[in-house]
Design goal:
Blueprint (H helix, E strand, L loop, with lengths): L2 H26 L12 H5 L4 H10 L2 H34 L3 H36 L5 H35 L4
Helix pairs in contact: 1-4, 4-5, 4-6, 5-6
Length: 178
């Protein structure tokens, strides 16, 4: 089987898995949305200190705290899935690059691949800090760590998604290699 076709299959399967997990995390996290956490678990990620984290956790009932724990646990599978999607998306689209423009595209793709891995590592560290906080072992340092991991994680993931969509759009729009 051709590597390109295999990678396309990996991309499609991981993309579907990523979408299913996004929907699942949204459903699980519905009761985490409160006036103190209007973005649910994302508000918790950005709490920045224990006073804010405690306030958010206090706004959740017992079911909410269980949902938060389940959300954070399932997020580890989500990290694996979205990272696979981003990596395989970069690889598949880079293989379509023309020779002339391919050097720049391939360089950018390597940067995006590294960015995907860094984002995943930041997400793992962030989840570790949030689980410690949720289980009563938090500190201002852990709350700050979670936030300082979340900010670049979202930026990096956004940049990689933008890169993938840009390459795909150019390819579809002009029906040729980039």
């Amino acid at each position: 089987m051709n590597l390109s076709i295999s990678m396309q299959k990996v991309f499609m399967v991981s993309l579907i898995g990523t979408i299913v997990l996004i929907i699942s995390l949204q459903i699980i996290g519905r009761n985490l949305v409160t006036p103190l956490s209007p973005m649910g678990i994302v508000s918790f990620e950005f709490s920045s200190n224990m006073q804010n984290a405690d306030s958010i956790m206090s706004s959740w009932n017992e079911t909410g705290k269980i949902s938060a724990a389940l959300n954070l646990g399932l997020d580890y599978l989500f990290i694996l899935m979205y990272t696979t999607t981003l990596l395989s998306g970069c690889i598949v689209l880079t293989k379509c690059a023309s020779y002339e423009k391919g050097k720049t595209i391939k360089y950018l793709s390597k940067v995006m691949i590294i960015s995907s891995v860094v984002a995943a590592l930041l997400d793992v560290i962030e989840n570790f800090a949030l689980i410690r906080i949720l289980t009563g072992n938090g500190s201002d340092n852990l709350a700050a760590l979670a936030m300082y991991c979340a900010i670049p994680k979202f930026i990096l993931v956004g940049l990689v998604i933008l890169f993938i969509i840009s390459l795909w759009s150019v390819r579809k729009l002009f029906n040729k290699t980039v």
